[in-house]
Design goal:
about 180 residues; alpha+beta; seven-stranded mixed beta sheet
Length: about 180
């Protein structure tokens, strides 16, 4: 699917994983969005994607000018059965593609696909309360702040918060759920 802005959205392929790993490695090494401190290697990133796909959850990329400019996916929010209608999103954009719409297109698609699958809540766990770009992106897509876990991480020589945001999907908690369609 191509957007009018020149962005191309599609499902992530195995051939995209080196670019995805490079984007994520940048954020792990230089930023606070992820609380990982050592970037996972390509094989680990492939394993993680395979786990998401095995759960029949979305994992998408956005191309800008022929290269991967960002990606997003949804994973289970937590493992216990009562959380089965909730997912957690992840979205990362290449540093040279920030502000071009890749994050919005990718995350918006993940929200739509999770809604269609019957999930009822999406949670964002955003590293660093100063991560204004991610917080603003989530707010533009209907997320509301649910809380802040103060100083729960220590990375790059400082204490780091986690901002919790939440968005209802479909009817949210307005009705009893149907089984999740996977």
């Amino acid at each position: 699917m191509a957007a009018a802005s020149g962005l191309i959205l599609r499902d992530a392929q195995d051939s995209d994983m080196a670019a995805i790993q490079a984007i994520y490695a940048h954020h792990v090494t230089h930023g606070l969005a992820s609380f990982e401190e050592t970037p996972p290697d390509l094989e680990e990133m492939r394993r993680r994607r395979a786990d998401i796909l095995a759960r029949r959850l979305p994992y998408v990329v956005v191309e800008i000018g022929g290269k991967i400019g960002g990606y997003a996916y949804a994973g289970p929010y937590r493992a216990r059965p009562a959380y089965r209608y909730a997912v957690e999103d992840s979205v990362y954009v290449a540093p040279d593609c920030a502000g071009k719409g890749a994050g919005r297109l990718a995350l918006g698609t993940v929200i739509d696909r999770c809604t269609q699958a019957g999930f009822r809540q999406m949670v964002a766990v955003i590293g660093d309360s100063g991560n204004e770009a991610s917080i603003a992106l989530h707010e533009r897509l209907g997320f509301r702040r649910a809380g802040v876990l103060t100083a729960v991480g220590f990375k790059l020589g400082r204490w780091v918060d986690s901002v919790l945001m939440q968005r209802a999907l479909g009817a949210g908690d307005g009705s009893l759920p149907e089984p999740v369609r996977r």
